[in-house]
Every structure is written in structure tokens, then in C-alpha cells.
Automatic annotation (TrEMBL):
Domain called Exportin-7/Ran-binding protein 17 TPR repeats: residue spans: 424-481
Protein name: Exportin-7/Ran-binding protein 17 TPR repeats domain-containing protein
GO biological process, one term: protein export from nucleus
Cross-referenced InterPro entries: ARM-like, ARM-type_fold, TPR_XPO7/RBP17, XPO4/7-like
Organism expressing this protein natively: Caenorhabditis japonica
């Protein structure tokens, strides 16, 4: 039977069917394609003869998945595929939809990257041989194709080069970090500068010309290519290029000539002015990268001239702000402003002739931006970063240098305070987003403000006092819950800023006991009103966080104990009231139930890890506050259906972080949980280990590791556990649960082993730690699993699988000590690598690492 019509029908169903069940079934059937031994042949069939455009699209995405898996495709097969893709694109790209062209170009880029070092040695004579890198030859041709004479070919060449540079910059699809770094360095040294120069020359040669729409489209694509070159990881650091902390562009010294005269900066500002609005974001991003080039590329004179061109360009943009009407371009311009101070010293900026003009314009720009919260909310951070770093540098400036910050910083502080107070009305009346809900962003901005206001402390204090008094009068005329909400939000802001022990002690003594009594009363009276309860709980989460050791009070102080007792009381009362409330609809359940449960998890986690409360004292003196808090945690956890749990990232993260520390320090409490509750916790840990979130995976694995350590010691200990002073007696429910439900740990073992052998592992070290405990506690299950996994392989692989399973436990003892786990983790790393080799067709009999080690010792 000809399978092409079947494949074409499945492809069409996947993309065109309006029936979700039909689409889902087509997706399942096509997913099997990538696991089939005939995958490559079927994909080539779809590329060559599949119904356009869905057949080639499915083939392209399937092949990309195949290249990232463990199925073996030979270098010669990849070379033929790459040649076919170039021919296919060359003939049909103008008629293909954009998404198909992009997919095929990405596939070509991945093939080229994976086989970048593939070498063919051609023997011409006994003494003459020639080395060829067949995957590099098309790149040479593509570079030479880029010009304004043939727009269609140039557009395709630019897209291929752009995706190749981007893919080269990523470790995706590579077997090892070392191979990725080798590719990076060779591509950088042999091709990247040539690609960058071609893009720069085309932009420079055409910036002053009257271009038609197609030529402008090519210019925009070339801008993207230029940007990808500037985003390249030149030194193989593998850092996250999206992080603002890693904003040094490590341009190679061999590229100096293209940057030191500053003409590239002038070119980009000119392109910003000449090109249409849709190119503005891309140009701004390039300029931000240019402002971040490492200082050591320039000598002192060159650096000063370079920063002058950047400052003059910034001034021109602010004076002609039409291109900033696009929100994305505005955001990138704010990033540029922040980078300007990150990479250059204040004295260098002051030395620029138009410094005072720039600073005045930037102050006006910042004030206007702060007043447009809906437009600039996500960009404000970068503007405040600029001013904060400017003020921080003031002590290093010579006295005769006029920095002018004392003039403009008070204006910025005033604008910030007044704009945020005005936004309160939008929050209350229109339901606008509350910026205080994002604790991380709030903390960052507050830290910036605390430095910016240093220029004129007296003016800032007067401003805040004036507005506080005005709003206090308004609150006194409002309803009780609004007063409490405002009070808690204000106190949280004060608590965030109270980073020293002395200041925090003053705050706590002012709050205790009256404010805590108000909070307890409020959660008891309005448990279903999230607008009241959420600010209270967020204040509590800040109060119990031992930021900069501010809660390490003197030995004579009982403040830390009182703080936890009040926190436990509020959390327990609210948890009890919350569980008594009727169910709400699904669209309201997060705001009115789950969100505050997540905050409670955060409160308890912060309290447990702070190391400022001697928890053993509570049981010693008959105080149940710790027991009450932990019991509330368990009850709230059980109230959330498992299917809902991982739908909310913050709740999942807070839960697993809290659970990790509960089992570390309160195992007796865990052993006395009911069988059903403990089994639910184990199942949630299993789900956490399968999460896509690295934070969740790490905490889930740590929790399981602690539980398994305890279980193994209980199961192998001949004497019953003894009670310890200040701790709950250890119970047997945890043992009963494991005996009654052995399938829970068995499924965990099977899932982790299977993932290690055949899957993409996100947190290998974290997963390896509990795996040894799972094996030691379930030796029979592990033995049967090994036998089943080995028998599923082809006959020629079974001996290798047997040997690798044996090596996995080499030198591993029957205990769960840290040293023993370290040995097992090392074995597991080799096990994963060797299993991947076997699945690719390599024989392990001749590459036994044990035999190799013995040979090295000889």
C-alpha cells in the first residue's frame, strides 16, 4: 500500500481539521513517525512529494525533532538532506508561506551546526591530500549572495545566515558542551566576522538611498542578521544573554576596526531615523548592544569619542521621539539608557560636551515615562537603573565636575511618588494591575529609589510626609477593610526597606501586638475577601523573611519567637476559615482561594528557613504553634485538586520549597500524617519530578531524597526509634503507607530510570540523589525493571545493557550516605552517556570504561 496518501491526509487533518479529536488523533499518529525506523525515508517522501504546504511542514518539524533525539542519522545522510533543502528553498521559497520557509531554514541551520566539524579527506596522490568541510561550503556561497541586485536570493540567503548564526549560538541539538564550544570558536574565527561585515556594508551602502518596499524588507532582515552577530557568545561562556546582568558584549580584538571609530553607532542612529517604524525596535536593540561592548576594546581616547557618539544619538532620539511611539522600541531605548551607565563611568559621561543637555532631556523623559504607567510599566526599571547607578558613582567624581544630579533626582522622586499614588485610583476603580503584587519588581525599584533619593534626603522626606498625611486623612474617612488594606501595603513597603536588625526591631516593636491583632481580626472577619486578605498575608511573608539576617535578634530578645507565634496564629485561623468557605467557580478560584494558599506556603517557607526561631522550644513548653502551622499547610495542600496544582507556577514552587524544608527539619511530624495524606504528598512529589520547572524539580527531588533516607534507615534499623527532647515521637504511618501502596515508589523508580535512559533530563544531579534510595528500598522492583528494559532491546544490544546496568552499581554500597550517593551520581552520568551510545549503534564491549581505566593504570 502506498503510504504517501495516508501521510498527506494526516498532515492535512493536523493543520486544517476543525474537529479537535481528529486533530489530536492526527498528532498522535504523526508523533509515531519520529520514533519509526523509516522516519528519515518518510520525511524525505513528504518533502519531495507531500501535499503543499502541510506535508513539507510536518516533515521539517519531525526531522528537527529527530535531530534532537537519540536516533542515529549518518553524516552523509545529513549532507544529502542539507543539499536537498537548499535546492528546495532555492526553487520554491518565493511561493512557500513564511512559516514553511522559516521551518526549512531552521532545519538547514541545525544540520549545518551538528556537522560543522565533519571532514572529508580526499587523497589526490601519495603525498597530496585535501581536506573538505562539505557543510561549510554553502555558507560561503550564501555570504556572497547577499546584495541589493537580486532581492529574492538575497532575502533567502539572509534568512538562512540569520538562523544559522542564532542556532550556532545555542547548545540545542548538540551532544556535549565541548562540541558546542568547538563549533562556536571555529564558526566565530572563520565566518562570523565576514557575515557581520556583509550585513554592515549593505546597511551602510543603502542608508541614504530611496528604497522601495521590497528593499526595505531586505534591510530589515539584514538588521536582524547584524543583531544576531552582536548577540553571539564570542567567548563560549554559555551565559543567559537575556539577563541584564550579563550585558558585556565581548567583541573579538580582531574586529576592532569596525567599532573604534564610532561610525557604526552613527550608522545605526541614522537607520533609526530613515527606516520605517517597524524597524525601530531592531535598531534600538542593536544600539543597546553597541553601548555594551567591552571597554578594553578601545583605548582611552577612542572610548571617549565612542561614548560621545552614543550620547549625541540618545539626545537626537529624545528630541525627535516619533520612533518611540512603538512600545517595543520605547522599551529597547530604555534598555539602551541603562546600558549607557552600566558600561561607562560617570566622569566619562560628564566629559561629553552635551552632557548637561542630555541629563536634562533624560530627566524630562523619565518624568514623562513615569506618568505613563500603562505604556511604560515594564520599562521603568531600566530608567531607574540609570539614575541609581549615576548617583552611586557620585563619590568617585572629582569635586570640580558638575554632575547636576542634585537638580534632577528630586524631580524624578517626586514624579515617581505622585504617579504611583495616582495609579491607586485606577487599581481601585478600574481593576488595573497592582504593581505591588510583584514582590520582586517592587523590591528592585525600592532599592533603586533608596539610592536615588540620596541626592536630596530632606526634599524626599518632606515629599513622603506630605503625601502620607494627605492619604491618611482620606483613609480615616473610608471603610475599615480599605484602611486595613492600605495599612498593610504601606507597612510591607516599610518592611522591605528595613534591611538592618536595628530598624526592623523598631518596626516590629511598633507593630506588636496591635497590628497583629488587627490582621488576625481581619482574616477572621473577611476570609473570603481576597482584596483584604492578600495584602495581610504578603505583609506577613515579608515580616518573616530573614532578609540580610535582620531577624537575628539579641539573645535576650524574644521578638523572633513572638513573631512566629503571631504568624502561626494568623495563618491557622485563616486556613481554618478558608476551608469552611463554599466552593467558587473556576474563573474565581485562583484569586479567591489558590493565590492566598500559595502565599501561606511562602510565609511558612520563609519562617522555616530563616534560622532565627528555636522551634524545639515550642514543644518543650507545650506550645502548639509550630504543629498548628504545619497542620494548616497539610490541610491546604489537600484542598487543591492534583489537576489544578501544576497549573499555577508560583503555588507549585512555593509548595515544593516549603515541603523540602518541612521534611528536612520536621520528619517526626511527617511520620505521623495519615496514610492517605502521606501518599498524596508522595504523588505530588512524583508530579514535581516530572515538571518543566527546574525549581520545582529540584525541591521535589530534595524532598524525596530526605524521605527515602529516613525510610531506608527505619527499614534497616533493628531497634525502635527513641523519642528526642523537644521533638514529636516518630510514628509508623509512613512505613504503613509504603507497605500498603508499594506502587507509588515503584512508579517513581520506573519514571526516573526511564527518563535517565531515554529522555531529556533537565536536572540530572537532583534526580540522581533520590534514585539510589529508590533502588535500595525496592531491590526486587529494580531487578525486574532491569530485566524488562533489557529484554525490550534488540538482541545485539542486550549484552551491552546488562553490562551497563552492572556498572551503574559499581562501587556503590548498601547505604544512603552522601559519599555513596556521589559515587552513584558519577556512575549514573557514565550510564546515561553509554546508553545513548548503545542506542546510536555503538558497541560498549570494546569501550568498557572499567577496562579502559585499568589500561591507563598499567
Amino acid at each position: 500500500m502506498d503510504e504517501l496518501p495516508v501521510l498527506n491526509r494526516l498532515c492535512k487533518d493536523l493543520y486544517e481539521s476543525v474537529d479537535p479529536q481528529v486533530r489530536h488523533q492526527a498528532e498522535l499518529n504523526l508523533a509515531e513517525l519520529s520514533e519509526s525506523p523509516e522516519c528519515l525515508q518518510r520525511c524525505m517522501l513528504l518533502l519531495a512529494r507531500g501535499d503543499y504546504p502541510y506535508g513539507p511542514m510536518v516533515a521539517s518539524t519531525t526531522l528537527m525533532k529527530l535531530l534532537g533525539g537519540k536516533t542515529s542519522i549518518t553524516s552523509s545522510q545529513k549532507l544529502e538532506l542539507a543539499k536537498y533543502l537548499l535546492e528546495m528553498l532555492g526553487q520554491g521559497a518565493p511561493q512557500f508561506p513564511a512559516y514553511l520557509v522559516t521551518s526549512l531554514c531552521q532545519l538547514f541551520a541545525r544540520l549545518t551546526k551538528q556537522e560543522w566539524t565533519y571532514l572529508i579527506v580526499q587523497e589526490n596522490s601519495a603525498e597530496d591530500s585535501k581536506n573538505e568541510y562539505p557543510f561549510r561550503e554553502p555558507v560561503d556561497s550564501l555570504i556572497k549572495t547577499v546584495n541589493m541586485d537580486n532581492l529574492e536570493e538575497s532575502m533567502l540567503a539572509v534568512q538562512l545566515l540569520t538562523l544559522l548564526v542564532a542556532d550556532m549560538n545555542s547548545a540545542s541539538g548538540m551532544d556535549s558542551v565541548n562540541q558546542h564550544r568547538k563549533n562556536l570558536s571555529q564558526f566565530r574565527d572563520d565566518f562570523l566576522y565576514e557575515i557581520f561585515s556583509v550585513s554592515l556594508n549593505l546597511l551602510s551602502n543603502n542608508v541614504d538611498k530611496n528604497l522601495n518596499d521590497r528593499q526595505i524588507t531586505l534591510m530589515h532582515a539584514v538588521l536582524n542578521l547584524n543583531l544576531q552577530c552582536l548577540l553571539f557568545d564570542y567567548i563560549g561562556s554559555l551565559t543567559d544573554e537575556t539577563s541584564e546582568d550579563n550585558c558585556n558584549v565581548q567583541i573579538p580584538t580582531a574586529w576592532r576596526a569596525s567599532f573604534t571609530d564610532g561610525k557604526i553607532v552613527q550608522l545605526m542612529f541614522k537607520l533609526l531615523e530613515k527606516l520605517p517604524q517597524e524597524s525601530s525596535e531592531k535598531v534600538m536593540t542593536i544600539i543597546a548592544q553597541l553601548a555594551s561592548i567591552r571597554r578594553t576594546l578601545f583605548n582611552g581616547t577612542e572610548r571617549q569619542a565612542y561614548v560621545q557618539k552614543l550620547v549625541e544619538g540618545v539626545v537626537s532620539v529624545i528630541m525627535n521621539p516619533e520612533k518611540l511611539s512603538d512600545q517595543a522600541a520605547f522599551h529597547e531605548f530604555c534598555r539602551l539608557i541603562a546600558r549607557l551607565k552600566t558600561n561607562y563611568q560617570l566622569c566619562e559621561l560628564i566629559a561629553v560636551p552635551c552632557y548637561s543637555h542630555m541629563l536634562r532631556l533624560l530627566a524630562e523623559f523619565t518624568v514623562q515615562s513615569l506618568r505613563m504607567m500603562e505604556f511604560s510599566a515594564n520599562s521603568t526599571y531600566f530608567l531607574m537603573t540609570f539614575w541609581q547607578r549615576m548617583v552611586t558613582s557620585v563619590p568617585y567624581v572629582r569635586n570640580n565636575d558638575e554632575h547636576l544630579l542634585n537638580i534632577y533626582c528630586p524631580e524624578i522622586m517626586t514624579s515617581f511618588v505622585e504617579s504611583r499614588l495616582q495609579h491607586v485610583e485606577s487599581i481601585v476603580r478600574e481593576g488595573a494591575e497592582n504593581p505591588l503584587d510583584d514582590q520582586g519588581s517592587t523590591l528592585q525599584i525600592m532599592e533603586h529609589l533608596s539610592i536615588i533619593c540620596r541626592c536630596e534626603y530632606e526634599k524626599t522626606c518632606k515629599l513622603l510626609t506630605q503625601h502620607f498625611d494627605q492619604n491618611a486623612n482620606i483613609w480615616m474617612n473610608g471603610s475599615d477593610n480599605k484602611i486595613i488594606t492600605g495599612l498593610c501595603r504601606d507597612l510591607r513597603g516599610v518592611a522591605i526597606a528595613s534591611t538592618t536588625k536595628a530598624i526592623f526591631q523598631i518596626l516590629f516593636e511598633w507593630m506588636y501586638p496591635d497590628v497583629f491583632t488587627i490582621m488576625q481580626f481581619s482574616v477572621e472577619k473577611w476570609p473570603g475577601c481576597a482584596d483584604v486578605v492578600t495584602p495581610i498575608l504578603r505583609l506577613l511573608s515579608e515580616m518573616v523573611q530573614n532578609r540580610q539576617q535582620r531577624l537575628k535578634f539579641e539573645m535576650s530578645s524574644c521578638s523572633a519567637v513572638l513573631l512566629f507565634k503571631e504568624t502561626s496564629k494568623i495563618v491557622s485561623i485563616y486556613g481554618e476559615r478558608l476551608l469552611q468557605l463554599p466552593d467558587v467557580s473556576k474563573d474565581r478560584v485562583y484569586k479567591e482561594r489558590y493565590k492566598n494558599i500559595g502565599v501561606i506556603f511562602l510565609i511558612l517557607k520563609n519562617a522555616l528557613i530563616g534560622a532565627y526561631v528555636p522551634f524545639g522550644v515550642f514543644r518543650l513548653y507545650g506550645d502548639s504553634c509550630l504543629q498548628d502551622a504545619l497542620t494548616t499547610f497539610v490541610k491546604l495542600f489537600m484542598s487543591i485538586p492534583p489537576d489544578d496544582f501544576h497549573s499555577y507556577t508560583k503555588i507549585a514552587q512555593n509548595h515544593y520549597n516549603l515541603l523540602e524544608h518541612v521534611v528536612q527539619d520536621n520528619m517526626p511530624f511527617v511520620t505521623n500524617l495519615s496514610v492517605d495524606v502521606f501518599c498524596a504528598l508522595l504523588r505530588s512529589i512524583h508530579s514535581g519530578m516530572s515538571s518543566a520547572d527546574a525549581i520545582v524539580i529540584t525541591s521535589a527531588c530534595s524532598s524525596l531524597d530526605t524521605i527515602l533516607n529516613y525510610l531506608y534507615r527505619r527499614l534497616t534499623r533493628s531497634t525502635p526509634p527513641t523519642n528526642k527532647v523537644g521533638m514529636d515521637p516518630e510514628g509508623d504511618n509512613i512505613l504503613i503507607a509504603v507497605k500498603q501502596h508499594p506502587e507509588i515508589l515503584a512508579k517513581m523508580l520506573q519514571a526516573v530510570i526511564t527518563l535517565m535512559m531515554f529522555g531529556e533530563v533537565k536536572c540530572q544531579w537532583s534526580l540522581s540523589r533520590p534514585l539510589l534510595g529508590l533502588i535500595l528500598i525496592q531491590e526486587d522492583v529494580y531487578t525486574n525493571m532491569k530485566r524488562e528494559l533489557t529484554s525490550q532491546q534488540t538482541y545485539d544490544r542486550q549484552a551491552d545493557f546488562d553490562m551497563l546496568f552492572t556498572q551503574l552499581m559499581s562501587n556503590v554500597e548498601m547505604n544512603v550516605s552522601v559519599k555513596n550517593k556521589d559515587t552513584f551520581t558519577q556512575n549514573l552520568t557514565r550510564f546515561r552517556r553509554d546508553i545513548a551510545g548503545v542506542l546510536k549503534g555503538q558497541s560498549m564491549q570494546s569501550t568498557n570504561p572499567v577496562n579502559q581505566d585499568m589500561q591507563h593504570q598499567d
